[in-house]
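Memo to structure team: turn this sequence into structure tokens by end of day. - J.P.
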Amino acid sequence: MTGVYRYYRHIGKDVNLVAFVGDGALADVSFQQLSAAAERGEQLTIICYDNEGYMNTGVQRSSTTPPGAWTNTSPVGKKQRGKLQNSKYMPLIMVDHDIPYVATANPAYLEDYAQKLTKALNTKNGLSYIHLFAPCPTGWRFPTDRGIEISQAAVWTNYFPLWECAAGKLSFTTEMRSPKPIYELTRLMGKFSHLNKDEITQLQLSVDKRFAKIKALASIT
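Reply from structure team:
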């Protein structure tokens, strides 16, 4: 993408270049290239569709897989209860790169997504990044007709809050005044069906801690 951007810049042509990349490829395998492009200020729009695992190669854990989630490489059994580690939160990592635009988006909130995509494409002074919630029926173990319901629940529970950071100012674009408990999301998916009460409580604490960090940043920017 950087090479294509440099070519068009060389011939004096202004184009919008968009990369649509999964979380495994972007947050793990190609994070070095993403970070370097952000630091250089490449004129690119990067969309990470986060289905929380390596779904194309057989449902393996990635760094964005949430704690406690089942995958084929974070199994559930007597010795292990899903993924042991917390997930990497790419949106705030990209905010720390001091790029002009970062946002989260969700297929259940298409108008919000469209507005953010428009802002990202109109960014002309560096890289823009959108982190898109992307439910996977196979890897998450849910019927295909429940994708939007799960997407809504991810926002309602603050599991996937919707916000943007433009020119260093972070603000929520949709905020839940009375968020629902994380169980309203986990009950919809097989990858969390093994969690007991204590494990759900731990996941809730993890979600609350991350949301508090985002809210604190919103209050000071």
